[in-house]
Amino acid sequence: MSTPQSDHLRSTKLRLLGLLIAPVARYAVRNNNSFQDFIQVAKSWFITAAADELARNNQKVNASRLSVMTGLTRMEVKRLNFGNLAPPPTVDLFGRVLGKWRNDPVYASRAGEPKVLSMEQFRQLVLEISKDTSPGTVLFELERTGLVKKTSSGLKHTKMLYNVGQDTVKTFELLSTEIDAHIRGAEENTSCQPHLPNLHLVTEYDNVFLEDLPKIREWLIDQGKLFHRKARNFIARFDRDLAGSVKSSDRAAGGKVLLAAFSLTEPSPSEGPQAAASERG
Q1: Which helix (H) or strand (E) holds 151?
Q2: Beta-carbon contacts of residue 99 (< 8 Å; ≥ 6 apart)
Q3: Which residues make Cβ contacts (< 8 Å) with residue 125, sequence separation at least 6?
Q4: For 205, what's the count of Cα atoms within 13 Å in the CB-facing half-sphere?
Q5: Helix, strand, or coil (residue 87)
Q6: pLDDT tens figures, 83-100
Q7: Coil, strand, or helix at residue 117?
Q8: Coil, strand or helix: which one is 29?
Q9: Residue 49 to residue 66: CA distance in whole angstroms
Q10: How far apart are CA 97 and CA 123, in angstroms?
């Protein structure tokens, strides 16, 4: 039996869900994805989310439980092949490998510069982070993106940032991770009301001179890189995998810190001249 309080709670939950779906709907419409496309993809991800939740609580994952949690029939759950869910994105793995290379005294100099590694040293580095992906696969991707270069003396770490560039799938894998973290951070801030909340800041201006947008975009990129470099150097001191002397400590570890930064300038610099002409016309 529903009550005014329960009806209000459900209405609020549906409104919050709608606010989260709104940007996804806009993306789908811009890219000619139909509502049927959305439903099909949503079903698969509902099953994935339910399976993740069961696994997180050390509970058995089966079609019956997934059906109850998602509202989908057992037949749909089985048809969508819940037993062969997609593996998690590997972008985070590359970042962790590079972070350890830059910060662990075994792989970095006293001055904080990444050492040139032999193939065996690189193999050991990757296996210390994860045994699920072969070191050869990791090396191939880091070479492909220009982050590692083979030299006569060994493997050299050439750039500081893992840049997914124009790889749409990897860009959206990273975006998906960021959105999930952003939602969980906002959820914790509003529902748990912690004494020390998660960082959640937005700065917006809506009447900027169009000819200055490229200059602003460049400044934001430069400052964002500097801020992230400063954050990495600070947080790495407290990460058991990276902090060297902390490894042998009895202090509990396993905490996660995720810091993301993004900016948007509209219209895009490539659209600037046309937009400016239209504005003046």
Answers
A1: strand 148-151
A2: 232, 236, 239, 242
A3: 97, 100, 101, 107, 117, 135
A4: 9
A5: coil
A6: 554 454 455 788 788 888
A7: strand
A8: helix
A9: 9
A10: 11
